[in-house]
Amino acid sequence: MAGNVLDAAATVEVATELDSPPGHDSHRAGAREIVAVLLLVIPFLVVALTAIMWVEWLPADLPRQWNSDGVSGTSPLWLMLVGPLLLTLLAAIGAASALPAAAAPNRVCIFLAAGFVGGAAAGAWLLCAGLALAPGSADATQADVGGWPLLMVLFWGYGALPAFLAYGSGPDRYEAHAF
Length: 179
Hints:
The chain is mainly alpha-helical. The protein has helices at about 1-20, 30-55, 75-95, 105-130, 150-160, 160-165; strands spanning about 60-65, 70-75. It contains six helices and two strands; from the N terminus they run H-H-E-E-H-H-H-H.
């Protein structure tokens, strides 16, 4: 049995070497992938830095849900901060886990998913905290939402940037992807 496992591992290694052009390891993360991971650190930094700058002005409870009459639900500041911080950090760590060669076939999909999670979490924080600080809203529950939630589409779209960047331009790069 042990001989079969070693033979299978040797076969996989040879097949990987034969699939790559001479002198080129297509499964190794390049500069584009590393920049894509760095792009996914930005949402974490944005949440952390804005929290540090705004914490003294933010109310104890932040608005998290609105209806036609205004704010219909709030959450404690610590919860509204810890959630996006953890999600953006996990998104960056998840993207970094796609850098080893073993993750190469799924790298772009991992970057896309991590980007959407990181962008949405940072966007939710900026939207809720920003509306609580909006001029003219002495009380966070009185903030006028207007069209600000539409910005979430842009934050989700930010998640596509790392995936597009890592996708590459070569015709044989990531040929296992369906999109």
